[in-house]
Amino acid sequence: MPRRTVQEVTVQDVQKRRNPNKHYVYIIKVSWSDSNTETIYRRYSKFFDLQMELLDKFPAEGGQKDPKRRIIPFLPGES
Length: 79
What we know:
- This is SH3 and PX domain-containing protein 2B.
- Residues 4-79 form the PX domain.
- The chain is an alpha+beta fold and 79 residues long.
- It has one helix at residues 44-57; strands at residues 6-17, 23-32, 37-43.
- Strands 1-2-3 form a three-stranded antiparallel β-sheet.
């Protein structure tokens, strides 16, 4: 069986939630190569954690040596 791959990811909506504390949840649609789709829900903090991992694993793409060559988009930290 061939391994399925992500074909497209889109943010469908953002919800403000207050339980257990105030936070935002991003509703994301993931389309797969086998024509299936899934809806996933993630907090901003999970996107930020992924960003940090990408910058650690791909320092050149993160612009550590030359900021003009950065291809990983900037993502502000939570305030």
